Amino acid sequence: MTMSDPIADMLTRIRNGNTAKHDIVKVPSSKMKLAVVDILVKEGYVKNYKVIADGAFKSIRIELKYGADKNEKVISGIKKISKPGLRVYASKDELPSVLGGLGTAIISTNKGLITDKEARKLNVGGEVIAFIW
Questions:
Q1: pLDDT tens by residue, 58-111
Q2: Which element (helix H / strand E) includes 16?
């Protein structure tokens, strides 16, 4: 059976791994997933990631980040906004702010996948992919 929303699957695996206090989460690789994980690393939500070749397929090995102990979670929430049945777009004037700027929105623009803060600087809009806080 084919997966209808692989980005939502990746975000769910990260959310579940974070809740279960795992150190590592493995997800199947794609260019879009790599761009999302790259933003998560740059924004400080995950430690690092590595692309691993599993035979014919590649997977992404994501190292989750915690505070002083595993009870202090860096990621307190991840939500997929734009879904296959309902795409959500935001113009440059209507870019969303997550928790008043404390969280991050991932926006797909013609400049690639960027955060809401970068989209405001570049003055572009696009499809709202996910919220992370």
A1: 999 999 999 888 888 999 999 999 999 999 999 999 999 999 889 999 999 999
A2: helix 6-19
Beta carbons of 88 and 108 less than 8 angstroms apart: no
32 alpha-carbon distance from chain centroid: 10
Contact 111, 124 (CB under 8 A): yes
What count of other Cβ atoms lies within 10 Å of the Cβ of residue 23? 12
- Considering only CA atoms, which of 26, 30, 4, 27 is closest in space to residue 83? 4
Q: How far is residue 126's CA from residue 79's CA, in Å, rounded to a whole number?
A: 17
> CA-to-CA distance for 12 and 10, rounded, in angstroms?
5
> Which three-class secondary structure state does DSSP give residue 5?
coil
| pTM across the whole model | 0.90
Distance CA 51, CA 108 (A): 22
Which pair of tokens denotes residue 64? 């989750």
> Which position has the token pair 């915690």?
66
